[in-house]
Fold this protein.
Amino acid sequence: MRPIYVSDSLEIAVNPFIYTAQPARVVFGAGSLSQLDREIDALGARKALVLSTPEQRASAELVAGILGPRAVGVFDRAVMHVPIETAREARDLARKLGADCAVAIGGGSTTGLGKAIALDSGLPILAIPTTYAGSEMTPIYGITEGGLKKTGRDLRVLPRTVIYDPALTLTLPVPLSVTSGINAIAHAAEGLYAVDRNPIMDLMAEEGITALGRALPAIVKHAEDSEARADALYGAWLCGTVLGHVGMALHHKLCHTLGGSFNLSHAETHTVVLPHALAYNAAQAPQAMARIQRALGGASAAQAVYDLAKNNGAPVALKDLGMQAADLDRACDLALQNQYPNPRPLERAAIRQLLQDAFDGTRPAA
């Protein structure tokens, strides 16, 4: 375990905090999917609707096979950003089939669909992550309606149980592994300068970033490195836990705006934007930047994240994700709506430049 640094101890001594743990049951380890039946029993459930994306239908069928007659159906139409029409369709199917729980297998899109169902119906969710998105550890939900993504927090959407089985991530494509991992790093990075941050989350954040920074290059070298896959899933769990316990800031607001309003890929957008959001906040959050730099190395936190992405084949420019230069002004306007806490005040000219740098893929200066 990493020792507590003197500066950390001094900061804790002078800054009071409140820490409230979120309820969660975590089952972690290779082969832990075999415990699914037991975990459904622990929920007191009898009929499960299995959720997935179209691409992960086979994984959903595997889960349904494990559950046998307790699986009342498979809904395989989860997509990015949870369109409200899809959420309503899945909710109605759950009611029609008499499901008393939902099992979401996949990444953030599938978990997000499960949350949308839970928000409306109270149906308990069991999540089986196959990416490093981290959504499974948070009470945060997002639903897209009329081209705008609306987010909120509600404990009803927090999955009751999460099964982390690294074996299920062995076939996660390397490019998606890298962007999904940096998406997870974003949760921890912003948690380090959240207005409601606390020393418990600080420790989890730095440990999570360290684990992912170590695991992602190893996965690029050998996609089926089981130790690296377990390390990455461990880091994603920690980073997702941070996201679930403290507020987020500019980075997440920008990514929700870009994803929900311009239909950009969630993980890739986080990967591109994070270095620039860190550079924007660096002067006002030096302790957070020091922790990120310590976890990843590099000359600065912003450059370390940028280099982690670029050196491992991830996109670093919004223009490569399908963003149009003509939409940058509108994106900036949307990002400035509904003011939210951030270490540095929201300055239109600076945020517009941030978006331009992210669009062009410019390496942060610091």
Notes: The mean pLDDT is 93. The chain has two domains: 25-169, 173-360. The radius of gyration is 20 Å.
